[in-house]
Write the structure tokens for this entry.
Amino acid sequence: MKRTKINAILSDDRHDYQACVKGWVRTFRNNQFIALNDGSTIHNLQLVVDFTNTAEDILKRITTGACISAVGNIISSQGKGQKYELKVTSLEILGDSDAEQYPLQPKKHSLEFLREIAHLRFRTSTFSAVFRVRNTLAYAVHKFFQEKGFVYLHTPVITASDAEGAGQMFRVTTLDMKNPPKTEAGEIDFSEDFFGKSTNLTVSGQLEAELAAMALSDVYTFGPTFRAENSNTGRHLAEFWMIEPEVAFNDLDDNMQLAEDMLQYVIKEALTKCADDIAFLNDRLADEEKQKPQQERSEMGLLDKLKFCVENNFERVTYTQAFEILRESNHNKKKKFTYLIDKWGADLQSEHERYLVEKHFKKPVILTDYPKDIKAFYMRQNDDGKTVRAMDVLFPGIGEIIGGSQREERYDKLLERMKDMHIPAEEMYWYLDTRKFGACPHAGFGLGFERLVLFVTGMSNIRDVIAFARTPKNCEF
Ligand code: 4AD
Ligand code: MG
């Protein structure tokens, strides 16, 4: 008999029909009631076993974590909290699970513990919900751009350029580390390396996306990116997924609108397609908040927060305005920031971003026109000579979720900025060529996908929204 998924059974109006279900046992009570989950929904299906007519050795093997297949009748349930249940007529154990050894007991485990058994944590309600939401968001990102006629571009993972000029890259090499070839000057000779030059894992697909946008007009990337920054925080990964649209003829205002429309679109999709998962995550977060002291609790629940973001325009503020708000804030005057706001030009820390979003504006904020010295070389220079057409989108509980800009399309200005910032212009001839041949105003941004998933699931650590996190000193699984 063909298997029916549990979500199909639970969302069907019918009952009193035969079905076959397969999945993993969450619990088995009173030698009679199995809570079965197959990952198609947050909800378990209750299976009722007639223990008087079932062999003792089969009953013994129905343990938490075991994989089973069952055939029976779907009937309307007398039990509380479920519409239907399956009255088992035949049951087969597909995979045993030794109850003594199985690490996932039917009780509440800490997220830290589950991170250590990330190979099994998909089987918990929380993580199955997180990964279904992640999936829906990824699909929604593609839907959003495809509906607008964007071309999905696959940019290389291995590159010889450092897009951000930040130098936090993972080297890719096939040289013998014990005995690398040396130049006359005694340095490692990368001309003998696989690509004939020094190469790294990409930190961003932006520069390549810009090349494509100069012909295809509207493109986006969605792929893995790598940063060897040694930040052990709840918001940084060494390997994360980024979405980078790049659009010819867009200025910064268009860019901000695109970012806002995209975020609202994908959050709305998650709210409708993953209503049950988000309801579960909403309650999970509410429980977690109850453990915190009153003043640390957030004012809004997860569902309220998501709806609020979808229904309200994002606040648009320049760096200079934000700087003044922060400098004059009581928080700053009472020295409550770790980094006090004092001199114009300083980079904002996440404590400042979160103050603006959570305390001052109480909504998502787009900060623009940052000082040029704290931003990348490719951002379009403003006439004031001090700022660039950058934008960061800041979200409650997250801080920076998007970074982007209008790009410098003027050849001379770009070249001058590259020289000032010691970006090797000769090696980047291909990037400069776009400014030589048919340049046009254009803009784009990068959305950190895991930060989006963090926001929508209400999880607090980025390690809990990617299947197998890569962070400093951690590359398990
Ligand atoms: O602000 P970033 O560094 O911008 C760029 O890479 C540009 N090339 C994007 C563009 O204009 N096309 O990174 C973009 C976003 C950040 O806002 C953040 O959400 C995410 O990527 N991000 C990280 N996410 C997880 N772990 C990290 N280590 C991240 N670094 C950046
Ligand atoms: Mg940034």
